[in-house]
Design goal:
Strand content: under 5%
Structural class: mainly alpha
Distance between the termini: 19 Å
Oligomer: single chain
Number of strands: 0
């Protein structure tokens, strides 16, 4: 993740100037990371949220039309924590972190803004999603 974070210092997308399947695949992993991988799989050196550029990638993709409707963090957590009894014998599903609150906030700000394209880009840059 450190290498990907460094790569995103100089570009918006992982594989060049446009959104590709590589970015979408990373998005699906990063959405799960803090909720599942960090705790259940003990990948807890850092949270995905702690990587500014990677989390900006998550927010950019989440704000794309139709993406937010497909992200069901509760279902993701329940599936992982309930289906791996060797790692979680009691089937306890933690209640956090609430990554959707952060993602929804970024989406609401973009949706409510009625501005020119340049103003929207500046707003998105300020939110760290562009």
């Amino acid at each position: 993740m450190d290498q990907l974070e460094e790569l995103l210092q100089s570009r918006l997308w992982l594989w060049g100037d446009v959104l590709t399947v590589v970015d979408i695949q990373m998005f699906t992993s990063l959405v799960r990371f803090d909720v599942v991988y960090h705790t259940l799989f003990k990948c807890n050196w850092k949270r995905a949220f702690d990587y500014r550029q990677l989390w900006s990638l998550v927010r950019r993709i989440y704000c794309l039309p139709g993406v937010a409707d497909t992200v069901r963090v509760d279902d993701i957590a329940t599936h992982y924590y309930k289906s791996l009894p060797d790692l979680n014998p009691r089937g306890i599903v933690p209640c956090g972190p609430d990554i959707l609150a952060i993602l929804r906030g970024a989406r609401r700000l973009l949706d409510s803004a009625q501005h020119s394209e340049s103003t929207m880009r500046n707003l998105a840059r300020g939110l760290g999603i562009w």
